[in-house]
Amino acid sequence: MISAILAHIALCAIAVGVAATIAIPSALVLAERPRAERGVSALLGALYTVPSLALLAVLVRFVGLGDTSVEIALVAYALYAIFRSTVVGVRAIPVEQREVAAALGLPPWSRRLRVELPSAMPAILSGLRIATLGSIALATLGGYVGGSGLGSILFTGFALQNRAMLLEGALGVVALALASEGAFRLLEMRRGRSPSVGVVGAFPKR
Amino acid sequence: MTDAPYSVAFDRASVHFSGSDAPALERLSLHVEPGELLAIVGASGSGKSTLLRCVNRLVELSDGCVAIDGRDVRTFELGPLRQSIGYAIQGVGLFAHLTVAENLALVPETLGWTRERTNARIDELLAAVRLDPPTYRSRRPRELSGGQSQRVGIARALVAHPRLLLLDEPFGAVDPILRPHLQSELLAVLREARTTTLFVTHDVDEALLLGNRIAVMRDGRLQAIGSPRALLEAPPDAFTAELLCGDELLHRYRRARLDEREGRR
After folding, report:
1. Which of A45, A177, B181, B221 places its Cα 20 to 30 Å from the Cα of A7?
2. Is A201 on the interface with B (CB under 8 A)?
């Protein structure tokens, strides 16, 4: 049970980590390019609507049974929430603040990392929260294609009609989901206490 | 301070914003000498801010040319151009997620200054705007009063020894009681910094107090330009007279203040 929980956590953490590494930087760049951003959003959105079992079935054909297929599917689903939330977060930055950053002559990457990323962080966090929760739920399907994690307990329990095993797996997933929500709650509360981001005293021009 | 202050020349500069019939700036020509402090006054929407923002290319010209030291601003690389120009706007625009010191360090970091040099410069400037460095370095913008944030904003604009300073109503959000204090402080700091300054304000008294020359803007055009003395004594047109001199009493008061200012120098 413990090893299944740990495997489940690892599956989700890697998936969200990989997805964030891809989605956040590309969203920071594409937020300034509305056309390209719309294209990528549409693509990721389309991917997101593919039923998970169908996607897993396709992946298993090409990648084979096991955790790799599960991991790819998890990343594919996590990308959308993280990408969109980052774009929305960057777009919500007040014009004055973007202008000041531009007027200081900061190079593009410095502007994105020092100004835009921290300012968009509340939105990004909510995207990560949704992606993590989604991954925890979705990773159980991995049990269907021979992946590790709590899904393996669930599907074995299902196959054996073993109620105790089913309950064990289900409760594990619920516990993980609650733990993740709690962790993000704490993180957001801590940020809430620390001075928030934005420009202080940016008044709209008369 | 090795770099000499910039001169700025507008040559028939025009700006048309899409979706607006009237040009924001119309064939404006104007020369600012190195080291000069030009105050720009005019009503809201007269193009004051646009004028300023053409220089660091936050706004691109539709026609004409803006040149720095005789060189078209469009031929400069954008980053280095902006790094050599200090900019502070109404309400300052300090980044709330960074401390005072981190706000000031943004441009020096970009320029690749050493940590020691950056820190020394930050302390020097905080002291110049009368904020005790050990106390204020690690403050967040939220923990500053309006006047203190303005000072930090001006310090940030000055941090990298700019050769040109663009100030867009930097005291616009400061309460009137504090203003005179900040104004005289700014004068002292600018004298030290030896830079060219374009200063936008809607406060005529502020312009008269700070400017070597005053440019009066109206509907995107340069209505009048001259020294405070010249414009006050002999306003070239009715609009300028109305704006600068006001009624008889105000006119007398302003001339008296100007006498006082020039007597002090």
Report:
1. A45
2. yes
Q: A169 pLDDT exceeds 80?
A: yes
List, as ranges, residues 79-108 from A with C-beta within 8 Å of B: 96-97, 99-107
Quick one: CA torsion of A88, A91, A96, A100, rounded to 10 degrees? 100
Residue B237 token pair: 């047109």
Mean pLDDT of chain A: 87
**Interface predicted TM-score (ipTM) over 0.85:** no
CB B174 within 8 A of CB B147: yes
Per-residue pLDDT, A19? 95
- Would you say residue B2 lies in a domain? no
**Nearest in space to B188 (alpha carbons), one of B151, B144, B145, B141:** B151
CA neighbor of B122 nearest in space, from B99, B143, B101 = B101
pLDDT band at B264 (very low <50, low <70, confident <90, very high): low
Q: Which domain holds residue B59?
A: 8-264
CATH number of the domain encompassing residue B55: 3.40.50.300
Q: How far is A23 from chain B (nearest CA, A)?
A: 23
What is the pLDDT averaged over residues B146-153? 86
CA separation, residue A186 to residues A181, A191, B235 (Å): 9, 9, 64
B109 contacts in chain A (CB < 8 Å): 110
Q: How many domains in chain B?
A: 1
Chain B residues close to A197, C-beta within 8 Å: 95-97
The nearest CA of chain A is from the CA of B91 a distance in Å of 5
Q: For chain A, list the domains and their CATH numbers.
A: 2-193 (1.10.3720.10)
Residues A28 and A20: beta-carbon distance below 8 Å:
no
For residue B190, the model assigns a pLDDT of 84
Q: Is residue B63 part of a domain?
A: yes
